[in-house]
User: Fold this.
Amino acid sequence: MMSITMPEPDQEVIARRADIIKAMQGIVPAGNVLEDADELRAYDSDALPAYHALPLIVVLPETTEQVSQILKYCHENDVKIVPRGSGTGLTGATLPLADAITLAMGKFDKILGIDYDNRCVVAQSGCTNLSITNAVADEGFYYAPDPSSQIACSIGGNIGTNAGGVHCLKYGLTTNNVMGLEMVMIDGEVIRIGGKHLDSEGYDLLGLLTGSEGLLGVITEITVRILQKPESARAMLIGFGSSEAGGECVAAIIAAGIIPGGMEMMDKPAIHAADDFMNCGYPRDVEALLIVELDGPEAEVEYLIKRVEDIAKETGALKIQVSQNEDERNMFWAGRKAAFPAVGRISPDYYCMDGTIPRGKLSFVLKRIHELEAKYGLGVANVFHAGDGNLHPLILYDANKPGELETAENFGAEILKVCVEVGGVLSGEHGIGIEKRDLMGTMFTEDDMNQQQRVKCAFDAGHLLNPGKVYPTLHRCAELGRVHVHQGQHRFPDIPRF
Amino acid sequence: MTAENIKPETEEQLRDSIQWALGDEVTLDIIGSGSKRTLGRPVDAKHCLDLSGFSGITLYQPEELVMTVKAATPLVKIEAVLEKQNQELAFEPANYDALLNGVPNSNQPSGTIGGVVACNLSGPRRIKVGAARDHLLGFHAVSGRGDLFKSGGQVVKNVTGFDLSKLMAGSFGTLALIMDVSLKVLPRSEKARTLLVLGADDSQAIAAMTAALHSPFEVSGAAHVPQSLSKHSTVSYVSAAARSITAVRIEGVGPSVESRCDSLKKTLKPFGTLEELHTRNSNTFWQEIRDVTYYTGTDLNQNQVWKISVPPASGAAVADRLRQTLAGDIYYDWGGGLLWLAMTPQHDAGQDIVREALVDGGHATLIRANDTVRKQVDVFQPQPKALAALSARVKEAFDPKGILNPGRMIEGV
Assistant:
């Protein structure tokens, strides 16, 4: 079942497969070019497994120079490229194309430098997110963005999706923590942006590249800032009789000027699934559970816990529990962190959505989701980065039941439309990929999307990098570049002059 | 054709203005309040497009930490509204009225939010909370093609299409005419404390700031002012010290600030005698650092000022190299990563010397110099060929006819 259509594969390129393989073998060691169906199958999808396809071939470069030569070849020979990190993406952004090389960056797995004096790490793009924290943990440092896939996801992929995590409310997303990049352009040119200093002048291409889902270039090296771990941290479990009360508590905490290290919310189905799976002692008789983590010096944590406790009571909390030690704090988090696999146990399949809404619209959106459950006949467990309004409804379905995946997809699309209606966006941290590609029009006008695609044209005029992703329609760059001047329609008399 | 100033007041008029410029093939100098016209290269444009009609706060939701404002809204107005809710623009937008225009420094910046965003101006707290660009959530603009477009939104977490907000921030009005911006706003800190280390030389100061920034105490400002400049401070503790001062700021809730301050004293003790500034003096001091007030004066030809961003640990080494050939003063912000250099004027502003000093990487921007000098030298750090070509293509993607602020960033672009 493929309800999202991808561009028609170019048979002429497929016919040249043997030549392309030969050319790639001349650039990378022979074993790094995968061509057998069995080998290719390992790369046939990312973590949106409903969509899979075999790539033309998979190439695993080991050096920036090799990436440069591969891209130069593709540019000269009109071959498409799909860059791929660890394949943990949730939107099909690295879905292979039958006429494209999947460029797998797994061999770019080295930490190139740790610079404590400048508080940064230089890493190759295939390094896992967690390996950066691990590399500096002995000195008490860590890399702040912590997506739940951090054990496996690559830092290059984090750039692609501007990955977040539970701590980004206080410490920022990927884009706020990246200082420099090395990138290979489609013509093979290697460009370095930023470095160990802040705020390079000139257009902020570093910011543009972050969240660009592999459409603009292939990132080979990344400089990220590292932070010293907070002296202490404690977590609170706060249970509410309704999601409205939970939402009110979140708003009141923020309004009081408190920005917690993490602030997560779960609804009843998610609480039960997580508690059944991890046995983490969550209150089971509440409708909404808030996990609030406060970090910093002990004096600060103690003071803020008291204030949050007061706010929670004022907003009608039924249960409040504060972690008394590290084990307990980790236990509070264990359920939340395992929420996705936990939901995986109560349903044959689940479909993870990722919209962001203004915090104040939470109860309205949850109510709408509840109504939609009845409409589509599918259940939902909600996990929510409450602090920054990032909602992850997990739609429960069974892929073996005919039509149910499609129903889940339609349900998900409708949830995202609700997010946009209330002033939110289609994706908070997973990206658009193919999954939300056809919904871009609900948020953007044709002019909005054309302007974004003109930026794409500045990087890759031939649309060779990751085509068919993010934007529902591809326009030729020449067509997008045309300026429509209304000749003779000048001297507008109604514009005030001075 | 005589030069003409146009002041559109509606979106339609703005688009008409661009259509007119495209049709008549004329170039436009874009201004808000005009407070930063001397920042960057002099614009080589026929007409002036005044955006001051686009003013006003259209949305402010304190509990959502978001504000949407029209681009030419005065910064002073925004800050006043935020203050009432105990919130602020956490990146500390700088006020360069005195630095750029020689008008007496005051607490009433004349600039607009659009100008702050277009120049990506951030203050000492940059090292903790990020730059202006990190607080820009979304915008509406009219491109140099005359198209209305938007990007981003009003929420912090958003990966929906390319993040064009980042491109707008720091583009000096060369890509599009920003009509409104949505900004992330944050709670103000209850309390601030600044610890001063007295008498450290440059490399000791860098070591002290590095030690402070290595701590888990969430330092929100780290600056070093040599003795030759500390005397200009209006904070008596600083001017009366008659020594260099190295300043480290802590902000937050009361008990936390006290506790972190005590811990930091232990960290900083080995570097020299310690003093402490409390909230009010602390605020004044950091405002001086932010606004570069030590280098201002009504005579804009008295000095030339460079803003130099380097890896923080190499700050003192860069300053050493600069001092070998240039006569002037240097003070440090951003834990040593930002050097403010004021030098005796030279016809080329010493650009080769300044840029050759950046051996460990970094960027130098000429902030204060007269028009003639800013026209002749590379005000912004020259880019390697491939990066410059890419940047030129990005410009073309928004402004193919080159009608918006031509020459502001790069000669002829």
